[in-house]
Amino acid sequence: MVVIPVLYSFRRCPYAMRARMALAAAEIPVALREVLLKEKPAELIAASPKATVPVLVLKNGIVIEESLEIMRWALDQNDPLQWTPDEDALFYWVTRCDGEFKHWLDRYKYADRHPENSPEHYRNTAEQFIRSLESALSASSWMGGARQTLIDVALFPFVRQFAAVDPTWWQASPYPMTRRWLDHWLNTSLFSVVMKKFPRWTPEIPDEQFPPATANTNPKAGQ
Length: 223
Hints:
The chain has helices at residues 14-25, 42-47, 67-77, 87-109, 119-139, 150-165, 167-172, 176-186, 189-194, and strands at residues 6-9, 30-34, 55-57, 63-64, 208-210. Strand 3 (55-57) and strand 4 form a beta hairpin. The chain has nine helices and five strands; from the N terminus they run βαβαββαααααααβ. Strands 4-3-1-2-5 form a five-stranded mixed beta sheet.
């Protein structure tokens, strides 16, 4: 019998990362099952044949297969940080992030797999999205305006990957507001909770609760 929802996740996946951020912020306990993407468990495939993470299996058996839908579901249950965004703005930014930016980000990260162009070409093309972020964050502190929202949480895991490809270049890049914004999220107590390492899940071991019962999952804005 399922007592709490089950979340299939992979720690470094940005889609899973943003889902865990929302679940932790909403203070919703789940049984976290950390999977290896090269060895997906049969239970994940049975729940979601496309077998990509994150996948959330609710107590009533309903399966939520998209990270953004998991985030929305979490805040519908509880939104103590008032992260609920303007839906039009959320759609705009997530569509750009998950579409054009992710396309070029993957080529920048794995340029050796795409030798038809240089890493600099892929980075320069991905920068179109970063420039849009910089413009928005120069006008207001957060992507949703004056307050933190789900938009910030949906985007920053992908910008984190972009920055990590060449940290020296990133620190010298002409995007100070985007760096400030990213650094804020990477230094929150909530992100520390979300990035806690879990052992690979197998049916033989007990499920582990996420977030841990002792974790600080409700940090104030700016901390």
